[in-house]
């Protein structure tokens, strides 16, 4: 069964105001997709929706705090209102402050709650819907930070690593249903989330490059469960994972 995002297909975007989500939505809008955007800020949500309508999309919006709202009830309501979900993109999260998280357990829990616990709730709710339908694809934005714990961001990395295992398990579960789940793992991306980090070197990518990988993953009837974006991060992280601990601990990554 094809998961192609053809005109008229319903695409649900969780965290629609993130730079990667907006870039993905613009690509789908150009194809005439029906977009259902979810995010917390209603005014910014309507501004993004207006731009996407000009680009060719039919757009509906749902203003909600994704970290606290009832995911299953919200997804069931979207299906009841719009018939079905062809593609679901989960693209929200917080980077947080590692140093603050080490001092303040509440900050660490905030990161883990947003990036793992609430995201897991949405993934499981969407998996149930796609499994019942027997088609569609769940695309989740993870991070290469989940590949190995590093002193500079291990709380964020732990949340993304856990989310990655969850999505791989969902993909395994859905494999015989006709539905799919894909984990897209970006490296350094030039977005407002990383505005405080010095941008330099060829490893940095624009949101549009990650969006290209997301949209391509949503189109394929079959494909890999884990997609690194850009592609070279697969090999960068393979090297990082293979570094012996005794040597790794001498670095300040």
Automatic annotation (TrEMBL):
The keyword Oxidoreductase applies. GO terms for molecular function: oxidoreductase activity. Keywords: Oxidoreductase. The lineage of its organism: Bacteria, Pseudomonadati, Pseudomonadota, Alphaproteobacteria, Hyphomicrobiales. CDD domains: SDR_c. It comes from Oharaeibacter diazotrophicus. Belongs to the short-chain dehydrogenases/reductases (SDR) family. Pfam families: adh_short. SUPFAM superfamilies: NAD(P)-binding Rossmann-fold domains (SSF51735). This is Short-subunit dehydrogenase.
